[in-house]
Design a protein that fits this description.
This protein is mostly helical and 342 residues long. The protein has a single domain, classed as ABC transporter involved in vitamin B12 uptake, BtuC (Orthogonal Bundle), CATH 1.10.3470. The chain is 74% helix and 0% strand. It is found in: Cell membrane. This is FecCD family ABC transporter permease.
């Protein structure tokens, strides 16, 4: 028997959800058009339609052709990070959980850097497998550390364990890269986090992993509703708590690891998006998860556009913009939630 959403968690806004979801999808479509149109070189609608039709016979259409995969990657990466954050918050019942704060992104980053420097990996497919392995090991490590002591894996202990792990892994990345001056520049650029230079071939390499991650996350929605009631009550409703938590966590790790492999570690998207989406969708994960995916795509795409506008004729990497946006929101969440469980 599957548990229903927790009555104590807040009202289920069934009347507002379809309209809000449609508006969010409309906003994403508008941002996608803006992402294709905005850049160092201004382009017109005729150039956009020509590029969509496969023509690259002018500088303007060539510019649009390079922005198309960048736009697609920003949407996919944002959706993956937003969904991953919502799942992690549901699994841990921790309002501060997200792939960056819990050390998952940095675990993936460390694994990729070690693979590049020590084992000479160069193919994107190898990056993806390595990043997913690193993300998974980091998630297990943080959860194990946060589970030590009285009370088990409380939100406060998980947040502290994740923060400490991120700092430690970041230091290890620097230690691994320092002796390799020939690779330091490219690795530092990748570590900032960005979607520039995206290609459809590269997106094709990570798409299968993201698809599996999306599927695992979405099928876990009802189980996350059950977990929100607490482990004992969820088990009383017939839910296999360990399996439910492992399935959802696996989806979140796949999403975070694959995204980190192609974009670098991008922080705060998975933290900010679920909190905003709960205001629109309530706490029912059957609505919250698709909302988080759409809103995450909107946030990362908007941040990428903002980075192009703010630093013209150069641009700010999207990882810098999300960090500037996410820092104040993180402080607000800490003050509002006071590290309570969801």
């Amino acid at each position: 028997m599957t548990a229903s959403p927790s009555p104590a968690a807040g009202p289920i806004r069934t009347g507002r959800q379809p309209l809000s979801l449609a508006l969010t999808a409309g906003l994403l479509a508008a941002l996608a058009l803006a992402s294709v149109a905005i850049g160092t070189r201004a382009v017109g609608w005729s150039d956009i339609w020509a590029a969509l039709g496969g023509r690259v016979d002018s500088i303007a259409t060539a510019a649009v052709a390079t922005r198309l995969p960048r736009t697609a990657l920003a949407m996919l990466a944002g959706a993956a990070l937003g969904l991953s954050g919502a799942v992690m918050q549901g699994v841990t019942r921790n309002p501060l959980a997200d792939p960056g704060i819990l050390g998952v992104n940095m675990g993936a980053s460390l694994a990729v850097v070690v693979g590049i420097v020590w084992f000479g990996i160069t193919a994107l497919q190898d990056y993806v497998w390595t990043a997913i392995l690193g993300a998974g090991l980091a998630a297990v490590f943080v959860y194990a550390i946060g589970s030590l002591g009285r009370g088990g894996a409380t939100p406060l202990k998980l947040a502290l364990a994740g923060a400490a792990t991120s700092v430690a892994f970041s230091s290890l990345v620097i230690a691994v890269v320092l002796p390799r001056a020939d690779l330091a520049g490219s690795i530092r650029s990748w570590q900032i986090g960005g979607v520039g230079g995206a290609t459809f071939a590269g997106i094709g390499h990570v798409a299968p992993f993201l698809a599996v991650g999306f599927a695992l996350a979405m099928i876990s929605a009802r189980r996350l509703n059950a977990l929100a009631l607490g482990d004992e009550l969820a088990a009383g409703f017939g839910e296999r708590v360990a399996r439910a938590r492992a399935t959802a966590a696996a989806g979140a790790v796949l999403l975070a690891g694959a995204t980190t492999a192609i974009c670098g570690p991008i922080g705060f998207v998975g933290l900010v998006v679920p909190h905003v989406c709960r205001l629109l969708a309530g706490t029912d994960h059957r609505w919250l998860l698709p909302f988080s995916a759409l809103a995450g795509a909107c946030l990362l795409l908007g941040a990428d556009i903002a980075g192009r506008i703010l630093a013209r004729p150069a641009e700010l990497d999207v990882g810098i913009v999300t960090a500037l946006m996410g820092g104040p929101v993180f402080i607000w969440i800490v003050r509002r939630q006071r590290i309570r469980e969801l």
